[in-house]
Amino acid sequence: MTASLDTAISVLADSERLLVFTGAGISTESGIPDFRGPEGVWTKVDPADFTIERFLGSSEHRVRDWERRFSSGVFGAEPNAAHRGVTDLVRRGPALGVVTQNIDGLHHAAGLEPDSVVELHGSSRVAECVGCGHVEQMGEVRSRWEDGERDPQCVRCDGIVKPGVVLFGEPLPTAEMARANAMAANADGVLVIGSTLSVYPAAFVPLDVVAAGHPMVIVNLGAT
After folding, report:
1. Which listed CATH number (3.30.70.20, 3.40.50.1220, 2.60.120.380, 3.30.420.40) goes with 1-32+80-121+174-224?
2. pLDDT of residue 1
3. What is the pLDDT of residue 58?
4. Strands in 35-188 per DSSP E
5. Which of 7, 195, 197, 208 could form a disulfide with 203 if both were Cys (CB 3.0 to 4.6 A apart)?
């Protein structure tokens, strides 16, 4: 253990352009469950309920989806010490930025500027119309939902509104993937926090840093 810790410290100390890659495990201390752990999300719900096909196919399904989302731990969660530590790494060096699989927005809440964070799977803090593309803050959608609009419609075109996150069956946002790849190409090391590196194509980002000959340190509760 001591040798492993010494190695990890030396990797971080030698890196001048560290890429930080985070997954669900970094947010469990904020009260947000991970996905694949013993008490993870996938032990309680069917992943098929999170497909874009199912979301668009039924108003009844969307009503259940919004109910589940607005009662989850994501809303009202606060950054924890790990998020704040990552912010410090970026602000003071040596980290050049964060690429996250998380949709909770806690890196932003911990003080990172938008250009320092890439949210590969979108953000639960916004919602978007699948028709006209109008984006609004999730708080506005939630207010309408609390007022009785259980399947919120677009305020501009009455189209279907979906959370601003990537559902199964949707591609990752092209612009965000390009930003993540640019960070990886410029990095000379990668710190992975709270990810099993089992979700692709997101996992290619840190692995590309390794493929370029740079070191990687993984901090995660489970196996990777």
Report:
1. 3.40.50.1220
2. 37
3. 94
4. 95-100, 117-119, 122-129, 135-137, 161-165
5. 197
Q: Does the pTM exceed 0.70?
A: yes
Q: Virtual CA dihedral for 13, 222, 66, 114, nearest 10 degrees?
A: 10
Helix (H) or strand (E) holding 19: strand 18-22
Give pLDDT < 70 ranges for the chain: 1-9, 34-45, 73, 221-224
What is the set of active-site residues? 121
pLDDT on residue 170: 94
Q: Residue 47: its pLDDT value, please?
A: 72
Q: How many CA atoms lie within 13 A of 218 on its CB side?
A: 15
- Round to whole Å and give the CA distance between 194 and 30: 13
CATH number assigned to the domain with residue range 35-72+127-165, chosen from the 4 options 1.10.443.10, 3.40.50.720, 3.30.1600.10, 2.40.110.10: 3.30.1600.10
Neighbours of 164 (CB within 10 A): 22
Model pLDDT, residue 7: 66
